[in-house]
Amino acid sequence: MIIRKLCENDNTAIELVIRSCLIEFGGNRSGLAWEDASLSNLYHFYEQNEGEAYWVAEQEGRVVGGCGIASFAQSDTICELQKMYLLPQIRGTGVAGPLIQTALEFARLHYKHCYLETLQTMEAANRFYAKHGFYSLEGPLAGSEHYACDAWFMKEL
């Protein structure tokens, strides 16, 4: 398994990973990443600003997951862990740990806090975030664009 920065030619593959995971967990609806305009061109979205990046997990030449870091609501101190999804056959293999650590190491260079929003139906992911030092919030931070999320987390960097 290789963890590397997103390349422009990964756009279609990572979009398919994200969309298939969203469908799996009922996230293919309004108010979630499903409708993000950037989803079809993540490379452009993450590569245009310092302090923002996206990584993919690649297995045998195939993109099988990824996650990104971007400023939350244009904050200088709070970033957001975004679009962390892995295909079902990769979950539980140990790749998620190094993937999130790569993202958080990058985030520490630019921010003081890391926020994320997700769905309660993604129970294993929520346990994973808690295991990696995220604590649950009672509601979204002001400036959230994903109004349909129902689970929110924060981590001190």
Q: Would you write up a description of this structure?
A:
It comes from Paenibacillus paeoniae. With 157 residues, the protein is an alpha+beta fold. The protein has a single domain, classed as Aminopeptidase. It contains four helices and seven strands, in the order βααβββαβαββ. A seven-stranded mixed β-sheet has the order 1-2-3-4-5-7-6, with helices on both faces. β2 and β3 form a beta hairpin. 31% of the residues are buried.
**Total of helices:** 4
CATH class descriptor name: Alpha Beta
Percent of residues in beta strands = 25-35%
Which shape, going by the Cα principal axes? globular
Give the CATH H-level superfamily.
Gcn5-related N-acetyltransferase (GNAT)
Structural class: alpha+beta
- Within the CATH hierarchy, at the fold level, what is the topology? Aminopeptidase
Strand order of the largest sheet: 1-2-3-4-5-7-6
Largest sheet: 7 strands, mixed
The residue ranges in which pLDDT falls below 50 over 5 or more consecutive positions are none
The string of secondary-structure elements, in order, is: EHHEEEHEHEE
Please estimate the helix content: 25-40%
Distance between the termini: 26 Å
How large, in whole angstroms, is the Cα Rg? Answer: 14 Å
CATH architecture: 3-Layer(aba) Sandwich
Number of domains: 1
